[in-house]
Design a protein that fits this description.
There is one protein chain. By secondary structure, this protein is an alpha/beta fold. The chain is 35% helix and 20% strand. It has 16 helices and 18 strands. Strands 3-4-5-2-1-6-7-11-12 form a nine-stranded mixed beta sheet, sandwiched between helices. Helix 1 crosses helix 16, helix 8 packs across helix 11 and helix 9 packs parallel to helix 10. It is globular and about 65 Å long. The N and C termini lie close together (12 Å). Bound molecules: alpha-D-glucopyranose.
Length: 460
């Protein structure tokens, strides 16, 4: 079995969020199961490859000269990188100077998609697996009768809208991409792919409802018969508190008393008070989806419960400004670090008593699993992958691993944090921590799910 795996992000080569971690985690797990996988990514930068070979791809003239480099990346293994006019940029999607999307993102990612289709013709894989809107339009440039195709949706909020003029450029299958008289990359691929997979079972259901469908719920309902939810995993070696080099004091499920030392070290690092109350951590993109603006609204109230809060993240400038202000006026009980800092994220999950994840929607979410692996009990919105990974201790004391909020709102967060703080101080906390830390969060289960789906697509 040979899978061509097209994605815009692949850790550690290029990643802005969960897509990069998910691509890398899934490909590594599939390879452990003996599957040949060729990941293909856009050449946003020159990425060094060993044993490099270059092939000119057969794409339509509008795309310009498009080539693919295949070789071996030191951390990733075999990988293919598409080089084309306009792809190389300092950030994959947005202009750091303005914070807005690159104005030519439609052309850039249609070029990538056309390159993926051409590479598929060149390599003749058994399955073509396309991730998110950046790769989805490959189906427009693929003739019928090619290898079976799978679309993975990591986030339905980003659909790849473009002007209707692109439909003619796309060719005979372009019409499938028409949505509200524009082009919608995900909509087209939902129509044309042989299978559609999203990153948790709960999200697979939610996206067929008007509340969770981002306007595509009816289309997804029509295609329910080929829609699957397979829960993501996390990299169980990278996220392993017993061998984690980022930590002040490594520990395992038998010795989570060491969390106290990690918490003291983190407080010193962040200039945070060591008391009173438990430490709540949040590691997140700061955007509408993640709901940290709701947390910001009640942060001062939470310090009176009492609790302390440490936030790491970056994103919307007004969310960042709000957190900077709150931290500056938080009597040392609130810390905010702007950025995407993996080492600090590890230290925060090692130090925290609780992690809060108040997402308005969440296809899967990785940080709740990372937190649980470090014995930090999550307080989550009851949506998507958060619903599928966190068991509420009050509803199910025997299996509970955290708190599911009843409502995604400031009041819901206050209530959830109250319950979380009570849990941390109770006799049930140790058992919940132990369950959370010893659960298998690895990619192995997910890989088996994908293998079944690939097998179902390949004839014979
Ligand atoms: C996106 C989603 C997130 C998911 C990740 C990996 O970032 O927002 O929920 O975990 O993709 O699939």
């Amino acid at each position: 079995m040979h899978v061509l795996f097209a994605t815009a992000e692949f850790e550690p080569v290029v990643a802005t969020g969960g897509l990069g971690a998910a691509s890398a985690g899934l490909v590594a797990a599939l390879r452990r199961h003996g599957i040949r996988v060729t990941p293909v990514i856009p050449g946003f930068a020159p990425y060094e490859l060993e044993g490099e070979g270059r092939v000119e791809l057969d794409v339509a003239p509008w795309a310009g000269s498009v080539t693919v480099r295949t070789g071996h990346h030191a951390q990733v293994g075999p990988i293919a990188v598409v080089d084309a006019p306009g792809l190389a940029r300092p950030h994959p999607y947005t202009d750091p100077a303005t914070g807005g999307a690159w104005p030519d993102n439609d052309r850039r990612f249609f070029t990538f998609a056309a390159a993926v289709a051409a590479l598929s013709r060149h390599l003749g894989p058994d399955v073509v697996h396309l991730h998110d809107w950046h790769a989805a339009a490959a189906l427009a440039f693929t003739a019928t009768g090619g290898p079976p195709t799978m679309l993975s949706i990591h986030n339905l909020a980003h659909q790849g809208w473009a002007d209707p003029e692109w439909i003619d450029v796309m060719g005979p299958r372009g019409e499938a991409f028409r949505q509200l008289n524009s082009v919608n990359c995900l909509a087209g691929a939902i129509r044309l792919a042989d299978a559609v997979v999203t990153v948790s079972p709960r999200y697979a259901y939610e996206i067929t409802t008007p509340e969770g469908g981002h306007g595509l719920d009816r289309l997804l309902s029509e295609h329910r018969g080929k829609l699957w939810g397979i829960l993501n995993g996390i990299d169980a070696d990278e996220w392993n508190p017993s061998i984690d080099e980022h930590l002040h004091t490594p520990y395992d499920a038998g010795g989570f008393g060491a969390k106290v030392h990690n918490q003291e070290a983190l407080c010193a690092e962040l200039g945070l008070a060591t008391a009173p109350g438990p430490l709540i951590v949040a590691v997140s993109r700061l955007d509408y989806q993640k709901g940290l603006d709701l947390l910001a609204e009640v942060a001062w109230m939470l310090t009176r419960i009492p609790a302390r809060i440490a936030v790491l993240g970056s994103g919307e400038p007004d969310h960042e400004a709000a957190w900077r202000y709150i931290a500056a006026h938080g009597d040392g009980r609130i810390a905010f670090t702007r950025g995407y800092d993996l080492g600090l994220a590890h230290r925060m999950f090692a130090a925290g008593d609780l992690a809060v994840i108040p997402s308005r929607f969440e296809p899967c979410g990785l940080t709740q699993m990372q937190a649980m692996r470090y014995g930090t009990l999550p307080i989550v919105s009851d949506v998507g992958g958060l619903h599928d990974t966190v068991v509420d201790v009050d509803a199910d004391p025997v299996h509970g691993t955290g708190v599911r909020m009843h409502q995604v709102s400031p009041a819901g967060i206050v209530d959830g944090v109250h319950r979380g703080v009570r849990l941390v101080g109770s006799a049930a906390a140790a058992a919940a921590r132990h369950r959370a830390m010893t659960h298998d969060w690895s990619w192995d289960t997910a890989a088996k799910g994908y293998l079944d789906r690939y097998a179902a697509l390949v004839p014979g």
